[in-house]
Fold:
Amino acid sequence: MATIATAESLGVRVKMVTGDQVAIARETAKTMGMGSDILDAATLGDVDKKPSKAAADAIEQADGFAQVFPQHKFHIVEVLQQRGHLVGMTGDGSTTLLR
Structure:
């Protein structure tokens, strides 16, 4: 929790990206002091196509994503980068940082 709080105090927005179920991701986010707006990867649409504005907005605004596969992680990062965010991943790629 302290790491997330420190990152956020420095202007870094932390998003959870996990293969876990949505309910588990929301509970983990709550425990970690993160927001609970966790999207199911199924809501991301076709990761091989350009996302709609609504889908890209949802990716940018969400606190995290659950039930993702590697291709979802790449899609999330790509959308955020296309919107001008500097994005980094830590650990096994399960936490996305954007600034």
The chain is about 40% helix and 20% strand.
